[in-house]
Amino acid sequence: MSVPYAKLPAWADYGLIPLINLAVAFIVAGLVVLLVGENPFRAAVILVEGAFGRGQGIAFTLFYATTFIFSGLSVAVAFHCGLFNIGGEGQGYIAGLGIAIACLSLDSVLPWYLLFPIAIAAAALFGALWALIPAWLQAKRGSHIVITTIMFNFIAASIMVYMLVDVIKPVGAMAPQTRNFLEGAQLPKLNWLIELFGFAKIRSAPFNISFILALVMAWLVWLLIWRTKLGYEMRTYGFSPKAARYAGISETRIILVTMMISGALSGMMALNPTMGDQHNVALDFVSGAGFVGIAVALMGRSHPVGIVLASILFGMLYQGGAELSFEMPNISRDMIVIIQGLVILFAGALEHMFRPAIQALFASLSPKSVGMAQAGKGA
Amino acid sequence: MDFLDAAVQTLDSTIRLSVPLLLACLAGLYSERSGIFDIGLEGKMLAGAFASAAAASVFHSAWIGLGMGILISVALALVHGFASITHRGNQIVSGVAINFVAAGSTIILGQAWFQQGGRTPALAPGERFEAIVFPGADAIRDVPIIGPIYSELISGHSLLVYIAFLAVPFTWWALFRTRFGLRLRAVGENPAAVDTAGISVEWLRYRAVICTGILTGIAGAYLAMVQNAGFVKDMTAGKGFIALAALIFAKWKPVNAMFACLLFGFLDAIAIRLQGSPLPIIGRVPVQFMQALPYVLTVVLLAGFIGKAIPPRAGGVPYVKER
Lengths: 379, 323
Prior knowledge:
The structure holds 2 protein chains of 2 kinds.
Chain A: E1 2-6, H1 10-36, H2 40-52, H3 55-80, H4 88-106, H5 112-141, H6 145-168, H7 191-195, H8 210-227, H9 229-239, H10 241-246, H11 251-268, H12 271-278, H13 289-299, H14 304-327, H15 334-349, H16 355-365, E2 370-374
Antiparallel strand pairs in A: 1-2
Chain B: H1 2-33, H2 41-59, H3 62-86, H4 91-114, E1 131-132, H5 146-154, E2 157-158, H6 159-176, H7 179-189, H8 191-196, H9 201-227, H10 239-249, H11 254-274, H12 287-302
Antiparallel strand pairs in B: 1-2
């Protein structure tokens, strides 16, 4: 059976459909709030006010967003090559080891502007190497990358617990974490940037220079995917591995390179919470940010601009969610985990649910653009 | 005698620890054999655990708890089916989504309903599945060798443990000796052929994910009502993923699945028993190493260094009817 459909204009494809998906996710989340016995509209107001009402809130929102930009880019780069890197969490966690090595050995010698590049390189290297093994297994031995990266998340967690508890922890300390970094490994804050816009003095927010790095990386990823030969090859492979093989693109090389870039981006995600905020590497410091990257990449449709916007949205949820849990004790920050899941469900797995209806709607509005398509297949 | 006691105790805890793995692993087997990848086992198990503990404590009945756990878990399985069968969405993405929704909502709802920091109230003895003592277990307890094995290892587990181990031959029979099983395996290898034979691919796959939901529900109920006396937040703690690893390790076969789960349960039991005390020859083994071992073994297997794990051919690919 065929139904008439309209080829959707770009704004509908990249704006309307994601917005509808997002709206449905938030409506369902609102139902959960209702189920808990609170008013979802009041919750939404508190959330937005908590995130953007004051300079302090904005700084925290952007601080959280920084981490998500990295992890979102990481997932997106792999998506473009048709790979699902679910191992960002582990890659970021292991990168903490690289950061710890760089910072602990050099923070008394170097100023931050010399140590930061070294730490970036260390984080990227550790993340990339942790992604390399699953990539190699996928390319050479055909092991499913989703499964191997999940396994590597758990292996990374075990390694880091061992390293932090038995190796790196200072003698006599109780908490399983490194010693505090000295000034050389503490990134400068960017709070003044927000104060420039006329907000009151921000007392303590960890918004720091790695935000700039995240934006630069977003631009570089755009450049890589749409303006380089390598990016073209990656997209070709993602679209059709057969066509890529026929065009003489080395399968092994493209998988390895893509996953290493993806892993490096995941690794850089570790810079923000360690050098930017806590000034140490602690147990479980990634705390799920690698998984948020999946939601962010899906929502941002794997485009750097979309990812930055989606990251800010999730930053808002994290910061606003913290404020919300003060006002409504029943809604802890775990609410974000639900929203995250719903966004992944509606913007990811069910992304085509509303498309046929919208296409039919467009077809009835402008009969000129009508063609014939298989029902439900989507354009 | 001392050694025998230690061995029996370790094997006993091996059984207890491998039951949730086994149930979740068999659950994944139905789904993946029908061509639907499911990395949402963890989430379904967690939701099942929460629902069963909550219902058991509210209605004071273990059976209502079990039923509720299965119901919620099946509901989530149907969401997975709706996304990946009806709407042909990405099965991995859908599984990830279910894990998050379950992880978040069990805590939020638990806190809102019971006000105990995400826990459910501790279950009273009548609200849990009690140990079943086999006839004569107490009588022959003192008989050397056979006594402890019979009375500790074989007798004295809860009903759900026996269900889990009976599910193994049942799954084998259902998959390899019934028409449903033949079709289920066929739809995971070559859905087009099944479709050509006039059998609905969608309905078959939906039935498979329902089986998955039932088993993950029982797995969750076991965690919340047998292993623990109530729900604790994030109590699955990665068991769904170990089950997934076991499924691959077992090469998608039910009897192998049992041995894989027993192996992983044994590793867990050993890790708990040793707690970092030194082994002969090797010396002290970090607990983390034992915990990581199932994952490492699975990766090694996936790499094809010990046999080759070949997944069902149509796994992860949504079926589009040709027109």
